[in-house]
Structure formats: C-alpha cells, structure tokens
Design brief:
Blueprint lengths: L1 H11 L1 E5 L3 H13 L3 H13 L15 E5 L6 H31 L5 H40 L2 H13 L2 H12 L7 E2 H11 L7 H5 L4 H8 L2 E7 L5 E7 L3 E3 L22 E3 L7
Antiparallel strand pairs: 1-2, 3-5, 4-5, 6-7
Length: 284
C-alpha cells in the first residue's frame, strides 16, 4: 500500500505542457513510475514533492493553452531529512521481509513464532505510521486535482483564460508603457495619444480587435484588462475625452532590450511579464 501511494504521488504530483498533450504526458509518467523500485519511488518523492520543484520552461511561442500543475508539501529541512531516513528504513525493512525473513525464521530452532510475530508487529506499526502520513498527502493531492478539474470545466476558467491572454498581450504592454511615458502631471494619459502612437508604430495591433480580443476599441480593451483606471473628462466645448492610467495596485516593469538601436515606444516591449500586482486587494 505504501508503494502504491508512492507511485500515485510520483505519477500525478506534477505535469505541464500543451493542453492537447496533457493526458498523453500523464500516461507516460504513470508508465515510467510503474517500472521503478520502491527505493527509487521514495527518493523521487523527496526531490519532487518535499523540495521546491525546478522551474518548467514554457516556450516563447505557443499556439494553445499551456497548463501546469505541481503539488508540493511545504515543510522544513529537518522534516525532509527525518522523512527520508524513515522511508529508507521502511524500504530496507520491506526488502528484508521479502528476501530474508522466511529463510531466517525457518532456520531458527523450532521456528521461533513469538520472536517472528514481535518483529512483524513492530514493522507493521512503523509501516502504518508512514501510511497515515502518505494518505494525508495523497488526499490533499487528489483534492487539488479535483478542484483544478472543476475550475477548468467552469465558465470562470474561460473568463480567466481570456483575461490572461489579454493581459499578457503585446497591445496591453504597449498601453501600459504609453500610460507611463505620456502621462500628464496628474498621472493620466490621453487615449487618443495611445491610439495615434500605436497606429503609427504598430498598426497591425489595431487590426481585428473584436476578433482577436473580443473588444471593438482600445477603451474596451483598457477596461477589460483590469490593469487600468479609465475616466471620461469633460471638455470646454461640451465634448468628452478618455484618459487612462495604470491602477495603483499594479506596477509596470520595463525590461531593457539588448539591441543597441533605439526603439519606439511601441517596439520597446517590456521583457518582464508586463504588469505585476504589487498591492493586491485584501482577500484576493
């Protein structure tokens, strides 16, 4: 039972890749884990579940949703060392039981049943302590997977996916940079300035806004991205103009391009993931 739980955790604790390949990758992990010994499974769980996982690199260009899931037990070095040692002892006891216990018992005078039973009871107690620990982790892992599956089947997941694509888009990054670099003294930038700059420097970004982003104009994109404050200002002639700024909960990080040639505001893309939530709303 301990070995089965180790296989389950190693096979399911981490997966990442294009959505269309997730099931194939999960099956490959199950197959690979099935061939491993109990000792290998125990060591792999320490490095992949009890310790911080390595960063998975997502390709620069993707053509479909890229999904990652990783389950980690947050603990300290002392517990990791303790668990590792206890698991090694358990693996050794299991190997002793399978390969050496019966011959050793049979060779004893009259097959010393009382000593054998005391030995087995002690091993059982140690095994059940480890089983209880692993059961808790397996339960938490399976609950996390269930919650993720429920979320991906919900309308909210569609909204979050669309929002994520919009927030990480070139166009939103440009709008954030324009908001900073063309802001008036009180911090607001003109939407017409953004429109003119993008139309001049990156006109392709304005083609098929409805089809690409689900919004007909830049104002709709500003509102939908959730990064910006948008305001309508009254003009002396009775008209209105739209101004915008980055909401003060967020910070735009502009990366430096290694090329020496100066770039326009539209082409000098932030190399860091555009806008970070520096001051999240309480409870979110």
């Amino acid at each position: 039972m301990v070995e089965a739980m180790l296989k389950h955790m190693n096979a399911n604790a981490s997966v990442h890749g294009p959505a269309s390949q997730l099931e194939e990758r999960m099956e490959a992990q199950r197959t690979a884990v099935h061939r491993k010994t109990m000792g290998e499974l125990a060591g792999k769980m320490v490095t992949h579940v009890l310790q911080a996982p390595p960063e998975h690199q997502t390709p620069d260009e993707i053509t479909e949703p890229w999904i990652g899931f990783h389950f980690t037990v947050e603990t300290d070095t002392q517990f990791i060392d303790q668990h590792d040692q206890e698991m090694r002892v358990l693996v050794d006891a299991r190997n002793d039981l399978i390969h050496h216990f019966l011959p050793r018992w049979h060779s004893a005078v009259d097959g010393d049943a009382e000593t054998a039973l005391a030995y087995l009871d002690a091993q059982r107690d140690e095994t059940f302590r480890m089983m209880d620990r692993l059961k808790g982790w397996v339960k938490a892992l399976d609950e996390g997977r269930r919650q993720i599956a429920t979320f991906w089947a919900s309308p909210e997941s569609v909204r979050q996916m669309e929002l994520g694509f919009l927030q990480s888009s070139h166009l939103v990054a440009m709008l954030g940079e324009i908001a900073l670099k063309t802001a008036r003294p009180h911090g607001w930038a003109y939407l017409t300035t953004a429109l003119n700059l993008i139309r001049r420097e990156a006109p392709d970004e304005l083609i098929d806004l409805q089809k690409r982003y689900g919004h007909q104009n830049l104002k709709g994109i500003l509102l939908a991205a959730e990064y910006f404050d948008v305001l309508e200002e009254a003009l002396p002639n009775g008209g209105i103009r739209t101004v915008f700024r980055i909401n003060d909960r967020y910070t735009l990080h502009l990366g430096q391009d290694v090329a020496s040639e100066p770039k326009s505001v539209a082409k000098a893309l932030p190399s860091v993931n555009q806008i970070d939530n520096s001051r999240p709303v309480p409870g979110q």
